[in-house]
Amino acid sequence: MVKNEKVNLISKILFISGMLIAGLYFLSSLLAPLVFAAIISLLLLPVCQKLESWKLNRVLAICTVLLLGTLLIGIISFLFASQFNSFLNDFPNLQEKIQKSMENFISNVSQNFGVQISDPVSLLQKNSSSLMSSGSKYVQKVFGATSGLLSFLTLVPIYCFLFLLYRNKFKNAFLDFFPPEKCDKIKTIIVEIKETVQQYFLGLLIVVGIIAVLNSIGLLALGIKYAILLGIFSALLTVIPYVGIVVGGLIPVIIALVTKDSLWYPAGVVGVYWLVQFLEGNLITPKIMGNQVDLNAFAIIFGLLAFGQLWGLIGLILAVPIIAVIKVVLSYSNSLKPIASILGK
Fold it and tell me: Which end of the chain is more exposed for a tag (fewer CB within 10 A), N or C?
């Protein structure tokens, strides 16, 4: 009898998991902004509650918080865009330097190893017709991604407003699905989920800010071009565990190789990023974030691969908090607690 109950439970879990994965994949354009907005709403909730405690109308409090958040993002985006504009203006010169570096590299390889390598520029010229014919497809993809991003950026604030406005209704409706004797336990789970998400993202925001400042100072000290742009960009990539650190550090090294005549500059960039990552991993993150998510490397890597496949870049950003929320929920179930222990450190 007990064996049959376990088999039925496993069958139900597999069925629900399959339906959930299918829904996450086929409804990604609908669910991704919804989940992202739900997490943003959790972050804005304490500020809204504080304003409401000052006798401010709920609608006015929500509008104030969203306006301040938009203003802050706008200021950061302006600073980032000004640096990016400088990068675009210098891009032709940078492209020429990259081409010369490639030619010198090919020449050195041919002379030292006796290997004949075709000039990549000539190859591009010979295949320009095929590149032009396929160019329209890439343009369509770019416009498709841009329209998708605009749709995402439009939906998220609307969802945030509605989540914050009707938060009590959503909570009460969710509790109505459970028998009264389990409501206290469900409320405890909701509170823990809220605290986990809030602490993770607020801590991550502080860590990203500190890393951006340290990276920018280090690159400015070395005299690397676009130091602030690269420092902020590489710091933003750290929200993607493991992968972001590698990509964020590789780009400044390439810029240093191309724009500087000495190999000491890219070596200096490697040293700066190693020092910053050492401080981040051993001092900054442990002090600020602690062990809020309490996930092991296997759970994080699997989550990144799974949600990256389902939702792309947004999935990579949301993977860790979503897996952390799943772990919290599983830890309150006696039959599913072993899965939560597998995900933990």
Answer: N
Where are the domains positioned within the chain? 28-95+149-177, 202-291, 293-345
Q: Which long-range contacts does 308-311 make (Cβ < 8 Å, 24+ apart)?
A: 310/21, 310/24, 310/25, 310/28, 311/24, 311/28, 311/31, 311/32
**Tens of pLDDT, residues 89-126:** 766 666 666 666 666 666 666 666 655 555 554 544 44
Selection from 164, 143, 141, 206 nearest residue 46 by Cα:
164
Question: What's the DSSP call for residue 345?
Answer: -
Tell me which DSSP letter residue 177 carries.
Answer: T
Report which residue type is found at 135: G
Q: How far apart are CA 89 and CA 86, in angstroms?
A: 5
Indicate if the alpha-carbon torsion angle 308, 314, 318, 320 is positive or negative. positive
Please name the residues in contact with 197: beta carbons below 8 A apart, sequence gap of 6 or more: 39, 42, 43, 321, 324, 325
CA distance 328 to 161: 26
Residue 1, classified by CB atoms within 10 Å of its CB into exposed (0-12), middle (13-18) or buried (19+), is exposed
Rounded-to-integer distance, Cα 16 and Cα 183, Å:
23
- Three-state secondary structure readout of 266-300: HHHHHHHHHHHHHHHHHHHHHHHCCCCCCCCHHHH
Q: Which of 15, 50, 36, 80 is nearest to 230 (CA)?
A: 80
What confidence score (pLDDT) does residue 64 get?
A: 93
Residue 324: CB atoms within 10 A of its CB come to 22
Token readout for 155 is: 């939906």
| DSSP state letter for 180 | G
pLDDT 10s digits, 247-277: 888 888 888 877 777 778 888 999 999 998 8
Which of 178, 210, 235, 171 has its CA nearest to residue 42?
171
